[in-house]
Amino acid sequence: MTFNDYDYVPTIRTRSAELLGIKNLRDKSKSQILPQVRLCRVSRTTSAEGALDKWLEVHSGPAIIQLEHSKSLLLDDKEYHDLMNPDDRFSSWANFIANSRQKNQNLIPGLLYNEQISKRDFIIELKRLESDFGKMVFNFNPMDKRAVAAASTAASVVDDLSNILFILDSGQISRERQMASLNATISAMNELRQIDPRIDIVASGTSFPNNFPPYLTSPKSSEGVIPMLEWDNYHSFGGRQFAIYGDYAAIHGEFYKGSFAQFVARVDYPTPGEWIFERHRPENPKSCDRAKLYVAAAQNIMTTESWDNELDTWGSDIIRQVSDGNTELFHSPAKWISVRLNMHIERVLQFLEDGVVTQSAIDELNDDDLNW
Fold first, then answer.
1. Within a 10 A sphere around the Cβ of 111, how many other Cβ atoms?
2. Which of 77, 128, 74, 120 is nearest to 98 (CA)?
């Protein structure tokens, strides 16, 4: 396996809703993605091994193994800090990967990195992972100058460049951050490719929001459109000619402690460069018929010009079933996260295969911006 065999690297957390969406991907689609899996607490499971086992229940192919760092999703606090510990040449992380590969030999370790790690420890870790496992992945924010410097160091000291994949992960992207993210990604790609033009790179990020009213077509409308900024940026710098595509599979990039929120039935549908959605609020939140609201949202999505009636995915099948009134098990927001993620991955694979480029992508860049 080589990293360049893949055109899509989605970032997936081991949350129940995301795992359900992955479980129901078509077998062909599972074989076409190289997931970056961030181990986090799932249900009552807080151990790294338990989170990994949950992942292996839904996907048995090659995958990149990382740790989730969002505080609200962290694994057991002691185990998390033990795995991040650089002592004895990162033995805790290396041992965890070695044990994990007994269950799936195609698991690829991510390089652990944070603001506290020294350059020496980082190089020791890289050498250890390359020696023990061959391939590895460095995920970093291209807007972080220290992380970019670490990536350049990694590219310079690795024994075999085919053993390392760099994921330039801009995290949560907004309209205000879109151009800064694009410029930082181009700059980091240039820096790495000046070391060697053969370096494998993924450009990743997410613009899926956690607040939807701003995206409604009008204040009283039930329908809305969300621009897929990571898709636009990817095609703005030239797409697959320069990097592998990555995103968070239509999941918000930042997590906070849960707070009470009024129920809203929302059904999402990915199109090239945009997510469209139907958002139905109950007239009386205390006594609403959730199933009825989801039926109406699903029916409305299916009447849009963007709906592809030939689409054959688990997620689209759920929308069809619900539109017909069969809402069993699909009248809660968490289950619709699974539907959205599943359809997003399936459709992105098709968009990439068909060479789809959106009109909203920035068309013109100075030739000097991409100088390799």
1. 23
2. 128
Per-residue pLDDT band at 371 (split at 50, 70, 90): very low
The secondary structure of 125-150, three-state, reads: HHHHHHHHHCCEEEEECCCCHHHHHH
* pLDDT for 256 beyond 90: no
Instruction: Report pLDDT for 254.
Output: 86
- How far apart CA 108 and CA 32 sit, in angstroms, is 16
164: Cβ contacts below 8 Å, ≥ 6 apart: 126, 130, 135, 136, 137, 138, 154, 155, 158, 199, 200
Listed in sequence order, the DSSP H helices in 196-264 are 229-236
**Pair of tokens at residue 94:** 């290396």
Overall average pLDDT of the 335-340 stretch: 97
- DSSP codes, 186-208: HHHHHHHHHH-TT-EEEEEEE--
State how far the Cα of 120 lies from the Cα of 89, in Å rounded to an integer.
11
8 A C-beta contact, residue 339 and residue 210:
no
Spatial distance between the Cα atoms of 323 and 352, rounded to a whole number of angstroms: 29
Residue reference for tokens 């906070």: 256
State the number of CA atoms in the 13 A half-sphere of 358 facing the CB: 21
The predicted structure's pLDDT at residue 367: 45
Task: Supply angle C-alpha 297, 302, 303, rounded to 5.
Answer: 100
Amino acid at 106: N
